[in-house]
Design goal:
UDP-N-acetylmuramoyl-L-alanine:D-glutamate ligase; 291 residues; alpha/beta; 9 helices
Protein backbone atom coordinates (compact mmCIF):
# COMPACT_ATOMS: atom_id res chain seq x y z
CA UNK A 1 0.00 0.00 0.00
CA UNK A 2 1.00 3.67 -0.17
CA UNK A 3 0.51 6.92 1.73
CA UNK A 4 -0.15 10.11 -0.24
CA UNK A 5 0.62 13.10 1.96
CA UNK A 6 -0.77 16.50 0.99
CA UNK A 7 1.55 18.45 3.23
CA UNK A 8 3.61 21.54 3.89
CA UNK A 9 7.33 21.81 3.24
CA UNK A 10 9.11 24.45 5.31
CA UNK A 11 12.59 25.74 5.83
CA UNK A 12 12.96 25.69 9.62
CA UNK A 13 15.04 28.37 11.29
CA UNK A 14 15.70 27.03 14.79
CA UNK A 15 16.93 29.11 17.72
CA UNK A 16 17.74 27.86 21.21
CA UNK A 17 16.90 30.54 23.79
CA UNK A 18 17.10 30.73 27.61
CA UNK A 19 13.34 31.35 27.72
CA UNK A 20 10.59 32.11 25.22
CA UNK A 21 10.55 35.86 24.44
CA UNK A 22 7.84 38.10 25.90
CA UNK A 23 6.35 41.14 24.11
CA UNK A 24 8.92 43.89 23.63
CA UNK A 25 11.88 41.71 24.62
CA UNK A 26 15.04 41.38 22.55
CA UNK A 27 16.63 38.03 23.28
CA UNK A 28 20.02 36.65 22.25
CA UNK A 29 19.87 33.07 20.95
CA UNK A 30 22.28 30.47 22.28
CA UNK A 31 22.44 28.55 18.98
CA UNK A 32 21.03 28.57 15.46
CA UNK A 33 20.33 25.87 12.88
CA UNK A 34 18.49 25.56 9.58
CA UNK A 35 16.72 22.37 8.57
CA UNK A 36 13.83 20.67 6.84
CA UNK A 37 10.44 21.07 8.48
CA UNK A 38 6.74 21.72 8.08
CA UNK A 39 4.06 19.45 9.52
CA UNK A 40 3.66 17.76 6.16
CA UNK A 41 7.34 17.12 5.56
CA UNK A 42 7.77 15.89 9.13
CA UNK A 43 4.94 13.38 8.73
CA UNK A 44 6.23 12.19 5.36
CA UNK A 45 9.71 11.60 6.78
CA UNK A 46 8.29 9.86 9.85
CA UNK A 47 6.08 7.55 7.78
CA UNK A 48 8.93 6.77 5.37
CA UNK A 49 11.31 6.04 8.27
CA UNK A 50 8.61 3.77 9.68
CA UNK A 51 8.95 1.65 6.52
CA UNK A 52 5.93 2.91 4.56
CA UNK A 53 5.86 3.95 0.90
CA UNK A 54 5.20 7.70 1.00
CA UNK A 55 4.44 10.08 -1.88
CA UNK A 56 4.46 13.75 -0.92
CA UNK A 57 2.13 16.25 -2.62
CA UNK A 58 3.41 19.76 -2.06
CA UNK A 59 5.17 22.84 -3.42
CA UNK A 60 8.38 24.82 -2.94
CA UNK A 61 10.04 27.84 -4.46
CA UNK A 62 13.45 27.71 -6.11
CA UNK A 63 14.99 28.33 -2.68
CA UNK A 64 13.55 25.01 -1.50
CA UNK A 65 15.14 22.63 -4.00
CA UNK A 66 17.47 21.36 -1.29
CA UNK A 67 14.42 20.49 0.84
CA UNK A 68 13.02 18.29 -1.94
CA UNK A 69 16.39 16.59 -2.27
CA UNK A 70 16.47 16.03 1.49
CA UNK A 71 13.01 14.41 1.40
CA UNK A 72 14.20 12.10 -1.35
CA UNK A 73 17.25 11.15 0.71
CA UNK A 74 14.93 10.21 3.58
CA UNK A 75 12.96 7.81 1.38
CA UNK A 76 10.02 10.02 0.34
CA UNK A 77 8.81 9.95 -3.27
CA UNK A 78 8.97 13.59 -4.43
CA UNK A 79 7.58 13.40 -7.98
CA UNK A 80 4.39 15.24 -6.94
CA UNK A 81 6.20 18.23 -5.42
CA UNK A 82 5.92 21.28 -7.68
CA UNK A 83 8.43 24.11 -7.94
CA UNK A 84 6.52 27.38 -8.33
CA UNK A 85 7.38 31.10 -8.45
CA UNK A 86 7.85 32.62 -5.03
CA UNK A 87 9.45 31.42 -1.83
CA UNK A 88 9.30 28.17 0.09
CA UNK A 89 7.33 28.20 3.34
CA UNK A 90 9.38 28.75 6.43
CA UNK A 91 9.13 28.64 10.21
CA UNK A 92 10.97 30.61 12.88
CA UNK A 93 11.21 28.33 15.91
CA UNK A 94 12.38 29.29 19.38
CA UNK A 95 13.06 26.47 21.86
CA UNK A 96 13.64 27.19 25.55
CA UNK A 97 15.63 25.26 28.15
CA UNK A 98 12.53 23.22 29.15
CA UNK A 99 11.99 22.04 25.56
CA UNK A 100 8.92 24.24 24.99
CA UNK A 101 8.66 26.10 21.71
CA UNK A 102 7.23 29.16 20.01
CA UNK A 103 6.72 29.07 16.22
CA UNK A 104 6.03 31.71 13.56
CA UNK A 105 4.95 30.33 10.18
CA UNK A 106 5.02 31.82 6.69
CA UNK A 107 3.04 29.65 4.25
CA UNK A 108 4.86 30.63 1.05
CA UNK A 109 4.49 27.98 -1.66
CA UNK A 110 2.40 25.79 0.67
CA UNK A 111 -0.56 28.13 0.04
CA UNK A 112 -0.32 27.75 -3.73
CA UNK A 113 -0.90 24.01 -4.28
CA UNK A 114 -3.43 23.58 -7.08
CA UNK A 115 -6.37 21.18 -7.35
CA UNK A 116 -5.05 19.90 -10.67
CA UNK A 117 -1.75 18.95 -9.03
CA UNK A 118 -3.57 17.06 -6.29
CA UNK A 119 -5.80 15.30 -8.80
CA UNK A 120 -2.85 14.14 -10.92
CA UNK A 121 -1.21 12.63 -7.87
CA UNK A 122 -4.29 10.86 -6.54
CA UNK A 123 -5.18 9.31 -9.91
CA UNK A 124 -2.13 7.08 -9.34
CA UNK A 125 -3.48 5.83 -6.00
CA UNK A 126 -5.14 2.47 -5.48
CA UNK A 127 -8.15 1.54 -3.38
CA UNK A 128 -6.97 0.99 0.18
CA UNK A 129 -4.14 3.53 -0.03
CA UNK A 130 -4.10 6.43 2.43
CA UNK A 131 -4.40 10.18 2.02
CA UNK A 132 -2.82 12.10 4.90
CA UNK A 133 -3.36 15.86 5.38
CA UNK A 134 -2.74 18.73 7.78
CA UNK A 135 -3.77 22.42 7.83
CA UNK A 136 -0.61 24.07 6.48
CA UNK A 137 -1.53 23.82 2.77
CA UNK A 138 -4.40 24.56 0.44
CA UNK A 139 -6.63 21.95 -1.19
CA UNK A 140 -7.62 19.70 1.73
CA UNK A 141 -11.35 19.59 0.98
CA UNK A 142 -10.88 18.85 -2.72
CA UNK A 143 -8.30 16.20 -1.86
CA UNK A 144 -10.59 14.56 0.71
CA UNK A 145 -13.46 14.40 -1.77
CA UNK A 146 -11.24 12.86 -4.45
CA UNK A 147 -9.72 10.37 -2.05
CA UNK A 148 -13.10 9.29 -0.72
CA UNK A 149 -14.39 8.63 -4.24
CA UNK A 150 -11.27 6.61 -5.03
CA UNK A 151 -11.63 4.43 -1.92
CA UNK A 152 -8.66 5.84 -0.03
CA UNK A 153 -8.51 6.06 3.75
CA UNK A 154 -8.44 9.73 4.79
CA UNK A 155 -6.25 10.72 7.75
CA UNK A 156 -6.43 14.32 8.93
CA UNK A 157 -4.20 15.99 11.52
CA UNK A 158 -6.26 19.08 12.37
CA UNK A 159 -3.38 21.45 13.03
CA UNK A 160 -2.93 24.36 13.07
CA UNK A 161 -6.59 24.28 14.15
CA UNK A 162 -9.07 26.22 12.01
CA UNK A 163 -12.74 25.49 12.62
CA UNK A 164 -13.71 26.71 9.13
CA UNK A 165 -11.26 24.23 7.60
CA UNK A 166 -12.16 21.30 9.84
CA UNK A 167 -15.96 21.35 9.70
CA UNK A 168 -16.46 20.58 5.96
CA UNK A 169 -13.87 17.78 6.12
CA UNK A 170 -15.59 15.79 8.87
CA UNK A 171 -17.78 13.63 6.56
CA UNK A 172 -14.69 12.36 4.70
CA UNK A 173 -12.34 11.54 7.60
CA UNK A 174 -11.52 7.97 8.66
CA UNK A 175 -8.84 8.85 11.23
CA UNK A 176 -8.68 12.23 12.96
CA UNK A 177 -5.59 13.18 15.00
CA UNK A 178 -5.53 16.28 17.20
CA UNK A 179 -4.19 17.46 20.54
CA UNK A 180 -6.29 18.18 23.62
CA UNK A 181 -6.57 21.92 22.94
CA UNK A 182 -7.65 21.28 19.36
CA UNK A 183 -10.13 18.63 20.56
CA UNK A 184 -11.69 21.13 22.96
CA UNK A 185 -11.90 23.74 20.21
CA UNK A 186 -13.56 21.27 17.84
CA UNK A 187 -16.14 20.13 20.39
CA UNK A 188 -16.99 23.76 21.20
CA UNK A 189 -17.31 24.63 17.52
CA UNK A 190 -19.59 21.76 16.48
CA UNK A 191 -21.45 21.26 19.75
CA UNK A 192 -20.69 17.52 19.86
CA UNK A 193 -18.32 15.33 21.81
CA UNK A 194 -15.67 13.42 19.89
CA UNK A 195 -17.25 10.08 20.73
CA UNK A 196 -20.45 11.16 18.96
CA UNK A 197 -18.77 12.03 15.66
CA UNK A 198 -19.23 9.71 12.70
CA UNK A 199 -15.48 9.18 12.36
CA UNK A 200 -14.21 5.63 12.81
CA UNK A 201 -11.10 6.51 14.81
CA UNK A 202 -9.97 9.63 16.66
CA UNK A 203 -6.67 10.02 18.50
CA UNK A 204 -6.19 12.88 20.94
CA UNK A 205 -2.55 13.42 21.89
CA UNK A 206 -1.98 14.53 25.49
CA UNK A 207 1.71 15.48 25.47
CA UNK A 208 3.50 14.01 28.47
CA UNK A 209 0.30 12.21 29.50
CA UNK A 210 0.18 10.00 26.39
CA UNK A 211 -2.89 9.83 24.17
CA UNK A 212 -6.53 8.76 24.03
CA UNK A 213 -8.07 6.64 21.25
CA UNK A 214 -11.76 6.91 20.45
CA UNK A 215 -12.78 3.78 18.52
CA UNK A 216 -16.15 5.20 17.51
CA UNK A 217 -16.99 2.18 15.37
CA UNK A 218 -17.51 0.18 18.58
CA UNK A 219 -17.86 2.94 21.18
CA UNK A 220 -14.67 2.14 23.09
CA UNK A 221 -12.27 4.73 24.52
CA UNK A 222 -8.71 3.68 25.42
CA UNK A 223 -5.94 5.62 27.17
CA UNK A 224 -2.23 5.09 26.48
CA UNK A 225 0.57 6.29 28.73
CA UNK A 226 3.47 8.30 27.34
CA UNK A 227 7.00 6.89 27.30
CA UNK A 228 8.85 8.84 29.99
CA UNK A 229 11.96 10.68 28.77
CA UNK A 230 13.81 13.93 29.44
CA UNK A 231 12.60 16.32 26.73
CA UNK A 232 14.91 18.89 25.16
CA UNK A 233 12.72 19.92 22.18
CA UNK A 234 9.06 19.05 21.61
CA UNK A 235 9.00 20.45 18.05
CA UNK A 236 7.83 17.81 15.57
CA UNK A 237 7.03 15.17 18.18
CA UNK A 238 3.32 15.14 17.34
CA UNK A 239 4.10 14.94 13.63
CA UNK A 240 6.44 12.03 14.26
CA UNK A 241 3.74 10.27 16.28
CA UNK A 242 1.15 10.75 13.53
CA UNK A 243 3.47 9.63 10.74
CA UNK A 244 4.37 6.48 12.65
CA UNK A 245 0.71 5.66 13.44
CA UNK A 246 -0.31 6.03 9.80
CA UNK A 247 2.67 4.01 8.55
CA UNK A 248 1.99 1.21 11.02
CA UNK A 249 -1.68 1.03 10.04
CA UNK A 250 -0.70 1.05 6.37
CA UNK A 251 1.58 -1.93 7.06
CA UNK A 252 -1.32 -3.84 8.63
CA UNK A 253 -0.78 -3.30 12.35
CA UNK A 254 -3.71 -2.92 14.72
CA UNK A 255 -4.36 0.48 16.26
CA UNK A 256 -3.07 -0.41 19.72
CA UNK A 257 0.20 -1.72 18.32
CA UNK A 258 0.50 1.31 16.02
CA UNK A 259 0.01 3.72 18.92
CA UNK A 260 2.61 1.89 21.01
CA UNK A 261 5.19 2.13 18.24
CA UNK A 262 4.35 5.78 17.54
CA UNK A 263 4.56 6.69 21.22
CA UNK A 264 8.10 5.35 21.36
CA UNK A 265 9.01 7.28 18.21
CA UNK A 266 7.59 10.49 19.67
CA UNK A 267 9.48 9.94 22.90
CA UNK A 268 12.76 9.54 21.04
CA UNK A 269 11.99 12.66 19.03
CA UNK A 270 11.71 14.96 22.04
CA UNK A 271 15.22 13.97 23.14
CA UNK A 272 16.61 15.51 19.94
CA UNK A 273 16.96 19.11 18.80
CA UNK A 274 15.43 19.69 15.37
CA UNK A 275 12.56 18.54 13.18
CA UNK A 276 12.47 16.32 10.07
CA UNK A 277 16.24 15.82 9.99
CA UNK A 278 16.30 14.07 13.37
CA UNK A 279 13.18 11.88 13.20
CA UNK A 280 14.18 8.36 14.33
CA UNK A 281 14.03 5.41 11.95
CA UNK A 282 12.17 2.17 12.61
CA UNK A 283 15.22 0.26 13.90
CA UNK A 284 15.98 2.97 16.46
CA UNK A 285 12.38 2.94 17.64
CA UNK A 286 12.19 -0.84 17.87
CA UNK A 287 15.51 -1.01 19.71
CA UNK A 288 14.35 1.63 22.20
CA UNK A 289 11.03 -0.17 22.68
CA UNK A 290 12.78 -3.47 23.43
CA UNK A 291 15.23 -1.71 25.74
Amino acid sequence: MAIYNLGSINIDLLYQVPHLPVPGETLAAQSYAQGLGGKGANMSVAAARAAARVLHIGAVGADGRWAVERLLEYGVDTKHIAEIPGVTGHAIISVDEMGENSIILWAGANALIGTDQIGRALTEANTGDTLMMQNETTGQLDAARMASKLGLKVVYAAAPFDANAVRPLLPFIDLLVLNQIEANQLEAEIGQSLKDLEISDIIVTLGGDGCRWYANSNGQVSNFDAVKVEAIDTTGAGDTFTGYVVAALDRGMGMEQAIGLASQAGALMVTRLGTADVIPDLKEVQDAKRG
